[in-house]
Amino acid sequence: MTRKAIYPGTFDPITFGHLDVIERAAALYDKLFIAVAKSEDKNPLFTVAERIEMISEAVKKYDNVEVESFEGLVVDYAVRKQVKVVIRGLRMISDFEYEFQMALTNRKLNSDIETVFMMPKDSYSYLSSRLIKEVSRLGADISKFVPSHVERKLRGKKDE
Amino acid sequence: MTRKAIYPGTFDPITFGHLDVIERAAALYDKLFIAVAKSEDKNPLFTVAERIEMISEAVKKYDNVEVESFEGLVVDYAVRKQVKVVIRGLRMISDFEYEFQMALTNRKLNSDIETVFMMPKDSYSYLSSRLIKEVSRLGADISKFVPSHVERKLRGKKDE
Amino acid sequence: MTRKAIYPGTFDPITFGHLDVIERAAALYDKLFIAVAKSEDKNPLFTVAERIEMISEAVKKYDNVEVESFEGLVVDYAVRKQVKVVIRGLRMISDFEYEFQMALTNRKLNSDIETVFMMPKDSYSYLSSRLIKEVSRLGADISKFVPSHVERKLRGKKDE
Amino acid sequence: MTRKAIYPGTFDPITFGHLDVIERAAALYDKLFIAVAKSEDKNPLFTVAERIEMISEAVKKYDNVEVESFEGLVVDYAVRKQVKVVIRGLRMISDFEYEFQMALTNRKLNSDIETVFMMPKDSYSYLSSRLIKEVSRLGADISKFVPSHVERKLRGKKDE
Amino acid sequence: MTRKAIYPGTFDPITFGHLDVIERAAALYDKLFIAVAKSEDKNPLFTVAERIEMISEAVKKYDNVEVESFEGLVVDYAVRKQVKVVIRGLRMISDFEYEFQMALTNRKLNSDIETVFMMPKDSYSYLSSRLIKEVSRLGADISKFVPSHVERKLRGKKDE
Amino acid sequence: MTRKAIYPGTFDPITFGHLDVIERAAALYDKLFIAVAKSEDKNPLFTVAERIEMISEAVKKYDNVEVESFEGLVVDYAVRKQVKVVIRGLRMISDFEYEFQMALTNRKLNSDIETVFMMPKDSYSYLSSRLIKEVSRLGADISKFVPSHVERKLRGKKDE
Q1: Alpha helical stretches, state H, A1-63
Q2: Domain count across chain F
Q3: D95-131 per-position pLDDT tens digit
Q4: How far is CA D96 from CA A88, B96, B97, B121, E73, in A?
């Protein structure tokens, strides 16, 4: 039996924190789908195509990781992909409660889908895409937070 | 002496979590006013009139519950209604700190008004109007979260 | 109808934080029972008789407050007293989660009993009987934390 | 490849909350080891043998679940069993921080072992073995918290 | 050696909570720079000039406090001012996690700059500029939250 | 003027987390007193003399750090040493609320003494002396958590 999992998110843009979760999840499952939510209401900085391209570049070393976009509910996407496990990274600070609320809501929507939480490396536990975009806009060197190809993309956005 | 209480909120829209708090509060007080805040700055999905109508339908079985809208401060509304108790539901996750901040601010504004917190049923502790609107927009079946007449209204909004 | 409430606790010893909750609850209910748990497993510093005496002295100005001890479950005590409301103070720090856990357990044990939470004055939000006993033992002037007759009793304990 | 996981704990005694996590984990892994820590320093109410017996009775319906005791570090036990995944239930209240602290410590001790967190059913999120023992001792009907054979065992302890 | 510190923020507008932190920090350092972030993306109610004017009026009694605006990263501003300490007030509720996330990000950006946290007076622990603006707009008397000259400015904004 | 600070604690035993806070504080103050609380009620594993010896060995590279024991209240010790600043490390997890409670109590006991909080390195944010003693007793290699001379001492205790 092939063990598959979905790691959904907005990834606007992908950070070393996300990549650490991906590395851990890829080791535990035969197949990992990174599912990029369109999230138009969050007014993302990068288009879905740009986000998929940045993630694909960052995960090309993993044979069992695939990057896709999805619309609608995560649980419906999981059903379409015949996957029962949704992975979420749980940072030590700041998103515990939101994650629980979302996971319990998803369980009510489809009790077949199980959310499992994984912990990123402690030194990435404070990383957030939002904060990275903010300090990048203010001129920060963000090479400690994102891969270099993402850094270049972020710098490009700033100049637009 | 008639014991009266106010249960204020935006109720955009009312959920089973709110209704659970209402049922508990209606059992403890002779008169319960559900006070719908206009909250124009929150850009609500439903008009005040729509929200009042949905709540009224949901609480018509309680003799001692009345639904009204209010503008301005909750504590000023309480004074106008000659009520000293403000009820707030305290979900296990996500609103503890905001609720405390608001309650302490209200106490500073009028020390005669007391905020008392009640706990909704554990299985409703994760419900939020915001999340329900989000998953409804994405196509979710929300019949486990809101009464059927609210569900129909939400579906109607989506088609607009 | 007489509105009655129970305010249970160990009160080892009573602090200005407890007294603030009592003042607020006494204003909202016709009758308030302060229910002193024997809590032998917590190895209290004061006997039940001493704790009742200290509380009685501190609340003698309220006509509608009565002090008693109880054994067993709070919900069973509430049934014996024909009271449906259990009051708990909710400090801004340190006891939120334990209080919720206890309130939900009590609700499972007897769904007729409702726990309502009240907030003590902000400047008492950090007071704890445990901490007061600790700093008193180390020689602190605790007159800002407890009534003077409790302070004397605590000093007496230290000299034993 | 056989996917195996360990669910370690003291289980003093096992509750419906633990059993809910076990059911979810047993569905995700080919083999689940329930690893009962001796935890002598926690002064458990039940012996390891009693705890294993109560768990075994409760999980006999699952073909892929095995109950064992272990001494020493969880990560060392995992290595001996050739398992890379440690399951922990994450209740909405009360143990988030301790769980994270333990998981990060375990990762430092052996980075090959991954802790994954699963959420028990919302209505079990407040259950704790400690609280159940406490209310049982005070005479509570605990049939909503533990299986009937555990309830009988707990009653037996009280009469000792 | 002159001990200098920076207290950065948006201060939209300055509250008694901020002023309490300023008083404490001014007592611990030879020189304190209050650094007003432009924060255009937060869409502040007051212009930088207005915010600086209100703060200057409120801190004129301190000889060692200077008010300035800054653009860009706090850590870069600190380098320009040759200051190694950034002060942040830590309220008992609501900003702990965000503050930690920001402080750790700043440390990654420049490890020479140290963030130290100070606690405002307990009775100011719930104050937030956002909430004060909200209740002021709804007609509240905010004289307990901000200095009188700030109160007048806020009332002026409402009439615009 | 000499800027002095106290870093009080039980240090049973000192960890890399404590040492990281000491390094940061020693850089900000002219003189840093590490004040070892006797804490007999906590039943420490090491005697005060052993704890002082272990700390002294670990901090000998800092010219401005002195190690002492103290009895009684921290604020009284601070007065005796003519120090106005008490340093506390604030780990991302697990001690925020206790630290605030203690700091506010100390402020009530002596408003001249200011508690300032510093953040240890993120990768030490989960370290606790209690957990280290526990895993050491269970046979863990604790060289990532404490200096080697502390590790030897801990191993020695285990063999007693």
Answers
A1: 16-28, 48-59
A2: 1
A3: 667 788 888 889 999 999 999 999 999 888 788 898 8
A4: 15, 16, 17, 21, 33
Contact assignment for B119 to C119 by CB distance below 8 Å: no
Checking phi first, is residue D72 left (phi over 0); if not, alpha (psi -120 to 50) or beta? left
For residue F98, is pLDDT > 90? Answer: no
List, as ranges, residues 8-67 from A with C-beta within 8 Å of B: 41
C82: CATH: 3.40.50.620
Say if CB A155 and CB E129 are below 8 A apart: no
DSSP letters for D46-110: S-HHHHHHHHHHHHTT-TTEEEEEE-S-HHHHHHHHT--EEEEE--SSS-HHHHHHHHHHHHHH-
Closest CA to F115 of F90, F152, F139, F140: F90
The closest alpha carbon to B130, from B95, B88, B100, belongs to B95
What is the least distance, in Å, from the CA of E29 to any CA of chain B?
A: 30
- At B110-145, the pLDDT tens digits run 999 999 999 999 888 788 898 899 999 999 999 999
Please report the residues numbered 100 through 129 in chain C whose beta carbons come closer than 8 angstroms to any beta carbon of chain D.
100-102, 104-105, 108-109
- Could you tell me the residue range of the domain that residue A130 belongs to? 4-159
| Weakest mean pLDDT among A92-106, E64-78, F144-158 | A92-106
DSSP, collapsed to helix, strand or coil, labels residue A89 as strand
With CB atoms and an 8 Å threshold, state whether E135 touches B76.
no
Q: Which ipTM value was assigned to this complex?
A: 0.91
- Chain C residues whose CB is inside 8 A of the F102 CB are 131
Asked if omega into A13 is within 30° of 0 (cis), the reply is yes
